[in-house]
Amino acid sequence: MTDTAIPQTAGALEAAAAPAAPGAAPGALGAAPGAPEGAPGAPDVAPKNPKDAPGAPEGGAGSPEGGAGSPPPGRSYAKLAADESREDYSLRYAPHSFRRWSPGTVAGTALGGIAYLADFAIGASIVFTYGFTSGFASIMAAATIIFLTGIPIARACAKYGLDMDLVTRGAGFGYFGSTLTSLIYASFTFIFFALEGSIMAQAMHQAIGLPVQAGYLITTLIVIPIVFRGMGALAKVQAWTQPIWIIGMVLPFVVLAFEAPDAWGAFSSFGGTEGAGPGFSWIGFGLGTGVALSLIAQIGEQADYLRFMPAKTEANKRRWNIAVLAAGPGWVIIGAAKQLGGALLAFVALEAVGKTHALEPIAPQIEALKPWLGSFALPAAALFVIVSQIKINVTNAYSGSLSWSNFFSRITHRHPGRVWYIFLNLAIALTLMEMNMFAALNKLLGFYSNVGIAWIAAVAADLVINKRIGLSPPYIEFKRAYLYAVNPAGFGSMVIASTVSILAFFGLFGAYAEAFSTFIAAGLSLTLCPLIAWATKGRYYLARPNPVNGPGAEVADITATHTCSVCETAYELPDIADCPVQSGPICSLCCSLDADCGDVCRKEPANGPVLMPMPVLRDGAGEGAAADASRV
C-alpha cells in the first residue's frame, strides 16, 4: 500500500506516521453494558504504553524532541479515559461501530430521560402566578419554539454522531467559542438535577419522614453507580423503570376523570393565586413563556442519546426519521402535556394542601390517588416520584459529565476521564439543593432561559439558514485542527442577544421588554447569526480545508480507520485530522489535548504534503474501495 499525500503546513515534520495496523479495532471501541452482541471490545487499559499513575493522560503531542526527524512522544490515557464502555466517546465523534442500537432503542432511552417532574412544578408555578389563560398560552408558545429549534439540532446530532457541544463548535461558535456554551449546558444539568433532587427529597420526607437535607444527599449519591457505567447502564435503567413510570403518570388523571370530571372546567377559569385573574395578560404571557423556555437546553440531553443513532439507510430511514423526531424535539410535546397536567393536579389539591405544598409534585399526586388507593396513595405516589427522579437525574448527571469534560479538556489540555466530572456536577447540584433553590424557581429559570435560548437559537439559525444558503460549510466540523478559536457568527450573536435580553429581563427597557426578554433573545440570535456570517463571508467557520472527510474529499467508506500517531489507536475517518507536527493522522482528542503544537496547522500556509497512511477499511472492503478511501 502507498501513502496518501495531503497538504501540510510549513515547519511540519517530514517523517510519516506509522500506518494503521490492519487488525486494529475501529476506535478501540467498547461495547457498553447492554449493547447488542457483536460490538467491538475495548481495552480496560490504555491502548499503548499505559502509565501507572492515575488521572490525566501522560505525554502529549508537542514540539518534537531530539531533532526534526523525531516524532513527539506518544500519549497513553488513564484507565478510565481509555475505557469507552464508560467513557462513551465523551469528547469524540461516536463511531458507527459503536452505534449498534436500533433507532427505536435509542429513542426509547432518550425519551425515558424526560420522566422528570420539574414540568409539574414549572407548569403549576406558571398557572398559579399568571392564571390559566396566560399560563396555557405561555406553555404552548414555549413548546412551539422549543420544538422548531430542536428539529435541526436533533437531526444534526443523529446524522453526524456528535453531542451538543461538538455540534455547537461547528455551527458558528468555533473551537474555544463553544467553551462558554459548555458552561451554559453544564449549568442546565446541575440546575435541573438540583430541582429534581429537591422534588425527590420532598417525596422521601412525605413518605418516611426523612429530613430533606438527608434526602438531598441520598438523591445525589444514588445515581453515581448508574452514571459511572455509561450509556449501556442508562439504557437498562430507562427500560426497566418505564412501566412503573407510565402507570404512575397516567393513573392520577384516570382517577380525576372518574372522581372529579368537572375539574378541568373549573381549572380553565382559574385566575391564579397572585391576583392575575382568569383573562389574558400580555405581561403574564411573556413572563410565563420565559419560565417555560428555560427547558430549551433539554435538546442537549436528548442529543447525548441521539448521537448513538445508527446510520440512516434506505431500509431504516422511516424508522430513523420518526425516532429522531420523537426523541429530539418530540420530548417537548410530552413536556407541555406534563406542565398542564401538573398545573391541573396542583389546582385540584390547592384547597387541601395549600399553595406551598401544591407546587411540590408529591402532594398533588397523593391527593389525586386517595379516592382509589386510600392509605396506599402515599407510598404509591412516593414510588412514582422517586422512580421519575432517578430516571431524569441519571441523564442530568451523565450529560453534565460530558459537558464538563468538553470544557476542561480545552482549558487545561488534560482529560482524566468523563466519570470524574460526575462528582463535580453533583457537588454543585447538592450545594444548590442545600440552598433551597426550589423557593426561587420562577426567577432562576426565567433568568437562565435568556442565555439558553440565545445559544440554541444561534445554533438552529446556522443549521437552517447559514448552511442552506452557503454561508457555512455543509457539514459539521468539530476538530480543533480545522476550526478558528472563535467564530463571531454564532458566538457573537449569542453574546449580543443574551446581553440585551438579560438587561431587558432586569427591567432596563421597561415592563414589556422585561416580560418578553426571551423573545428578544431568540429574535436577535436568529437574526444576527446569518447577518454576521454574511458580513464576514463565512470566513471564520474553517481555518483550513479538511482533506480527510471534508466536503471536498472523496470518501468511499466513512467507517474506514486511521491509527492516531499519538495514542496509536484506530479511529474512524470523521474523528481524524492530518497533523503536520505528527506528520500523519491524529485523533480529535489527542489534537485537543496538545498544549505545545502552537496550532501551526491553522496559522501557517500549507506548502507541502502530510503523508497519511492508507485508511484501514472494514471487513469485506476490496482494494479498489481502499484506493477510493485513501483520497479522504
The stretches of 5 or more residues where confidence is low (pLDDT under 50) are 1-73, 620-632
Helical content stands at: 55-70%
By DSSP (H or I, 4+ residues per run), the number of helices equals 25
Beta strand %:
under 5%
Lateral strand order in the biggest sheet? 1-6
Derived structural class: mainly alpha
* Overall residue-averaged pLDDT value: 82
Tell me the total number of β-strands: 6
Radius of gyration: 25 Å
End-to-end gap: 15 Å
Largest sheet: 2 strands, antiparallel
**General form:** globular
Give an overview of the whole structure:
With 632 residues, the protein is mainly α. It has 25 helices and six strands. The chain has a two-stranded antiparallel ribbon with strand order 1-6. Helix 3 runs parallel beside helix 14 (317-327), helix 5 (132-160) packs across helix 15 (331-358) and helix 6 (164-173) crosses helix 19 (441-466). The chain is globular, with a radius of gyration of 25 Å. The model is unreliable at 1-73 and 620-632 (pLDDT under 50).
Q: How are the elements arranged and paired?
A:
Blueprint: E1 4-9, H1 79-82, H2 84-87, H3 103-112, H4 118-130, H5 132-160, H6 164-173, H7 178-208, H8 212-221, H9 224-228, H10 231-259, H11 263-267, H12 282-292, H13 298-306, H14 317-327, H15 331-358, H16 362-373, H17 377-412, H18 420-434, H19 441-466, H20 488-505, H21 511-515, H22 517-535, E2 561-563, E3 570-572, E4 576-579, E5 584-587, H23 588-593, H24 600-603, E6 606-612, H25 623-629
